Amino acid sequence: MERWRVFALGVGLSLCCASAPVWAQDAQSQAAEALFRQAKTLMAKGEFAEACEKFSASHELEPGVGTLLYLGDCYERAGRFASALDTFRQARVLAQARGDRERDHLASVRSAALEPRVPKVELRVGAEQPADLQLTMNGAPIDRREFNRALPRDSGAYELRFSAPGYEAYTTRIELRNGQGRPAVVNAPRLVSLAATTSEPERAVPAEAGGTQRVLAWVLGGTGVALGIGAGVLAVLAAGKNDDSKADCDPVDPNRCNPRGVSAREDAQSLATAATVTGLLGGLSLAGGVVLYVSAPSTSETGVPNAALVRFSVPLL
Predict the structure, then answer these.
(1) What predicted TM-score, i.e. pTM, was given to this entire model?
(2) What CATH number does residue 130 fall under?
(3) Residue 138: which region, alpha, beta or left (left: phi > 0; alpha: psi -120 to 50)?
């Protein structure tokens, strides 16, 4: 009796273990079918992004030629022509493997109609580039085998980054549009070696030299302008004093003046002398400033902007 119980238990366990994969497979098929129906409903509403995700998830659970055809159609309606073309090609491969000629033909027709409208980009990389050149599109690495070939890509903006160890990275952007015709060509730039940019010696002229000389030029020139203004003021005062002295001098003989007239004449002469000396000094200062500014090293030699400005104040006389 005990033997029959052991035998019955063994048979039950065998049946249970044998049916477990079948149950799992049925559950997986049901989930794939549910996702497929949800995707069809979403696509009918025009919600293509969500529909394509569910078609793709359904195919992952249970690969099928019909699911791939729907997914390719969904991608095409969503404007993702490169993804649609790739999906139709996958459908052809699966249909041929299963001997499904009708769907193979359908996938072939859809691929042929779509291919001319798919945007492409050609990444041209010459032999002069570093052997370990790395290229990414929107952060995704591009295999070297895809260099110098027209690659189908969905429409949109792409950031291309060229880099290699020991070189400065280069980044550019392109925009791909459906039906653009010819491939967008991107030529790989000649990357600049970091060693070359850091090993070059600096110029012997200090960066501060030109800037300091220009500062002195502006100060000296400003001083010259201020002295010139002062000389003008002194000259006006001298003329005023001279005019004032005429009231205290003989109209017939202007050199005959009373004491107040003589004092005014002396003040006028002193102011005129001061105006002459001040004007001479101002002219020399201004000329010296011009010479200093013109002879200062250029911006390319020192790195100091030519338009460096210095604030100065003009003394009020």
Answers:
(1) 0.54
(2) 2.60.40.1120
(3) left
Query: What per-residue confidence (pLDDT) applies to 303?
Result: 44
99, two tokens: 């001997």
What residues pair up with 156 in beta bridges, in sequence order?
A: 176
The Cα–Cα gap between 177 and 125 comes to 23
Cα distances (angstroms) measured from residue 31 to each of 22, 37, 42, 56: 14, 10, 17, 13
Pairing of strands 140-141, 156-163: unpaired
* Dihedral over Cα of 9, 14, 19, 20: its sign: positive
Neighbours of 206 (CB within 10 A): 15
- DSSP codes, 237-300: HHHHHHHHHGGGB-SSSTT-B-HHHHHHHHHHHHHHHHHHHHHHHHHHHHHHHHHHHHHSPPHH
Sign of CA dihedral 277, 282, 285, 287: negative
Amino acid identity of 158? Y
Summarised one tens digit per residue, pLDDT across range 73-122 is 999 999 999 999 999 999 999 999 999 999 999 999 999 999 999 999 99
Element (H or E) spanning 177, and its range? none
Count of domains forming the chain: 3
pLDDT digits (tens, 9 = 90+) for 114-129: 999 999 999 999 888 8
Are 58 and 93 in a shared domain?
A: yes
Q: Are 250 and 277 part of one and the same domain?
A: yes
C-alpha of 316 from chain center: 51
- Is the same domain home to 226 and 272? yes
* Structural domain boundaries, residue 177: 120-199
Sign of CA dihedral 113, 114, 117, 122: negative
What stretches in the chain show pLDDT beneath 70? 1-25, 196-210, 217, 220-221, 224, 231, 234, 238, 241, 245-248, 250-256, 261-262, 264-265, 268, 271, 275, 282, 289, 292, 294, 296-317
